[in-house]
Design brief:
seven-stranded parallel β-sheet; TIM Barrel; four-stranded antiparallel β-sheet; alpha/beta
Length: about 375
């Protein structure tokens, strides 16, 4: 099998020559800094290219140039960055997503603190909606050619992921978590207006990209759950998310050959898995163990969901006995059920030594399929 065939066979629950090799969605910057001291070449330092190549991952292209990413809802142009205050401990600034954030100098990979968001009223949204117009020539003038060359360079020995900011992620970027929660009650028409534009923008962008290059699956960044459950209720999900996800997915299925639609969220997603499945999402990641996401239970309840992740990253903190126990309890039965990409349940944190990470890869890849 070539890489593209292997990926689609995984998503179709077909038998493979071997599982897909993409055992983590990334690494903290501090993890690479530790590993460089432990013998990792200094040239290995990113999540998209040098890291996956060094550790023998299958080739995957993240097509983020024209369809957005997790740091902003696909603005074009981005907002100008404005430094408000800078000390030896933190930086206060307006970022490229129009948010006022506080970034602490220590812990560079930590999440910034959101202090203000650009949308509080319908008028605010109307004033910035031009940045979310998928038809502006500037959005594609150079970026589409770059992305097309990247997507097509590997032929069938790679697969392509179109990375999009999900609908909850878009609400959160524009209004903030507290803001969106309040506005659901006070001004629901605003959320519906944002969602209508989200569908239109992504329909247009993704179909344009597909005309130029293969898209093997859509990757929606959401991060909409904490350890104890989601940040949106099932009732609100049905009102403010379900109709729009279904419209977008149905439209892409009707007009393209894209058939794999994934959601990336940390935390406890049990209350939302069925709702996402109903609208056409058929792949999830990374199934955070500390939040109660046991992939063996997920497989029992959702036999045709593609599972990517679910191996406790904290098992890699310890000795080989703990690594092997965690891997062998989960990976063989999930591989037997098909539709599984073995991976840890988040990015690799700096508590994991290079030796333990390499041992983890050795154990996972040594399992007979």
């Amino acid at each position: 099998m070539n890489t593209r065939e292997r990926f689609h066979a995984t998503c179709n629950f077909e038998k493979l020559d071997r599982p897909i090799r993409w055992e983590t969605i990334g690494y903290w910057t501090e993890t690479f800094a530790r590993w460089h001291k432990e013998g990792l070449p200094e040239t290995v330092l990113d999540n998209a290219f040098t890291g996956p190549d060094h550790f023998g991952f299958d080739k995957m292209n993240w097509l983020t140039i024209a369809v957005g990413a997790d740091s902003e809802p696909s603005f074009s142009p981005l907002f100008d960055i404005e430094i408000i205050e800078e000390t030896d401990k933190y930086i206060l600034k307006k970022d490229h997503a129009g948010k006022t954030i506080k970034t602490h100098i220590e812990g560079q990979s930590g999440l910034p603190q959101d202090l203000d968001n650009p949308v509080k009223t319908m008028a605010d949204f109307e004033a910035l909606k031009w940045r979310l117009d998928p038809e502006t020539p500037e959005r594609f003038s150079a970026n589409l050619d770059i992305m097309t060359n990247l997507a097509n360079a590997g032929g069938d020995d790679c697969y392509n992921s179109a990375v999009c900011c999900g609908l909850f992620g878009t609400y959160r970027h524009l209004m903030g978590l507290v803001g969106m929660s309040v506005l659901m009650k006070r001004e629901p028409k605003l959320l519906h207006a944002i969602a209508e534009n989200w569908v239109y923008m992504h329909e247009t962008l993704l179909k344009k990209v597909r005309e130029k290059s293969i898209i093997d699956y859509i990757y929606f960044w959401e991060d909409m759950s904490y350890k104890n459950g989601p940040m949106i209720s099932p009732k609100a999900f049905r009102e403010f998310m379900s109709p729009y996800y279904k419209r977008l997915i149905d439209s892409l299925k009707a007009d393209t050959d894209i058939r794999v639609f994934s959601v990336d969220s940390d935390g406890d997603l049990w209350a939302l898995l069925e709702l996402f499945s109903e609208v056409g999402i058929n792949m999830f990641l990374p199934f955070e163990v500390q939040a109660g996401m046991d992939i063996r239970e997920v497989r029992e309840k959702f036999p045709k969901m593609v599972i990517w992740g679910g191996i406790d990253k904290m098992a890699l903190f310890d000795n080989n006995e703990f690594i092997e126990k965690e891997v062998m309890e989960k990976v063989p039965p999930l591989l037997k059920s098909d539709g599984f990409i073995p991976a840890i349940d988040h990015v690799v944190p700096p508590e994991v030594s290079l030796k333990n990470y390499e041992k983890f890869l050795e154990i996972v890849r040594g399992i007979k399929y």
